[in-house]
Predict the structure.
Amino acid sequence: MPAKASLGLTLTLLAIILIASPWASAGISRSSNEVKSDHAAKVEQETGRAGTGYLKCLSCHADYKNNHHPIGFVPSIVTNTTVFPLYDGKVQCLTCHTRNHRGGGQLLRGGPYSDRREICFRCHSKEEYSGIDPHIMMDDNGVIMKVNDRPVCLVCHEKMPNPKSDGTKDVSFRADVAFLCWRCHSPMVSPVFDQHFLVTLPAGMLNYMKKNARSLAVTIPLVPRNRITCSTCHNPHQKGIIQNGASSKGADSRDRLRLPVPDLCLVCHRLS
């Protein structure tokens, strides 16, 4: 089947499942304008001074202190501090994000951006990433490849995982999972992405997903606060890297999906 036809069939199946599913109308997806409005009201009500550069951001986004772009460090190269201010010489939340939550896409300074990655390259060099494919992890002899004299795993992971035993809760990342993906990949442009990305699974759906994942022996990882991210559906690893059976599913598969469509959709969505 031609690639375009296959993609069309995939999206059609996803749409049917979403429409048919009782979860589709369960309030798990909200418009970006609603989210921005809530953020603006909350931040403007609770935030006092801007001196620290992250105000009370972490009172709501606590999991991002160690799992997003690093904060609280002095950058090795200082770029445009008019657009991207430093706080006591350090990068903080408000270096990239706006205080009033009414900035460009994703509340980013200097926006809106046609491609979300554009903001990254206001400080980072595209050439630094152009020759790296972190999905190719082993050479022909099964030896872990290196990037800048470090294992390729550390392009994304904060420390080397144990491929035999580590599960979702055992691994740590250099940044938020989607943040890492967007260094190379543009965010998906489709209703599937809009209706899923960073959506928090309601309790009923979460329990349903966990039950199905166990029965299918597949890992469906979420990020903090039980939210969906890129790796929830996609397995970014090369086949043979992960030796934990449930977590290894989908490696090197078409679109790196953890299960074929529509089986993957049905892990979370009920047909009736």
Summary: The first strand starts at residue 146 and ends at 147. The radius of gyration is 20 Å. Residues 129-266 form one domain. The chain has a mean pLDDT of 77.
